[in-house]
């Protein structure tokens, strides 16, 4: 999967905000101010050996299983290793699974939002389905 493809996919979730708060290499995706993903692709030639990857929120149990089952998945780069995973885009994780992991990350962060924020998101989702 290409970096542009994963960034476009992450941007389709409701109310997503994206920015480069850590510099030009890390593109961060948030919901209601809470990060659920970031993509990394080095822009400097001296660091071009680092493969592009996406870092996603996960449960500790899922993180353990995924890092042991896939060579392209490792504990989250510069993140809490129990709650985040980094997935190389050119590895052994197919597009469907990567998209599912992105959806899980989004839902995990949404589930931890304040009740009023969760209800507002749910109302937007229902309205979008009706339109």
UniProtKB/TrEMBL annotation:
<dbReference type="InterPro" id="IPR007351">
    <property type="entry name" value="YjbR"/>
</dbReference>
<dbReference type="Pfam" id="PF04237">
    <property type="entry name" value="YjbR"/>
</dbReference>
<dbReference type="InterPro" id="IPR038056">
    <property type="entry name" value="YjbR-like_sf"/>
</dbReference>
<protein>
    <recommendedName>
        <fullName>MmcQ/YjbR family DNA-binding protein</fullName>
    </recommendedName>
</protein>
<dbReference type="InterPro" id="IPR058532">
    <property type="entry name" value="YjbR/MT2646/Rv2570-like"/>
</dbReference>
């Amino acid at each position: 999967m290409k970096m542009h493809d994963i960034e476009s996919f992450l941007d389709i979730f409701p109310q997503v905000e994206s920015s480069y708060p850590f510099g030009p290499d890390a593109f961060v995706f948030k919901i209601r101010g809470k990060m659920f993903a970031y993509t990394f692709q080095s822009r400097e030639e001296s660091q071009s050996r680092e493969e592009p990857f996406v870092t996603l929120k996960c449960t500790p149990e899922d993180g353990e299983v995924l890092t042991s089952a896939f060579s392209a998945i490792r504990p989250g780069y510069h993140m809490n290793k129990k709650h985040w995973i980094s997935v190389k885009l050119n590895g052994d994780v197919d597009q469907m699974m990567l998209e599912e992991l992105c959806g899980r990350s989004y839902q995990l962060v949404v589930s931890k939002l304040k009740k009023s924020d969760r209800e507002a998101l749910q109302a937007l989702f229902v309205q979008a389905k009706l339109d």
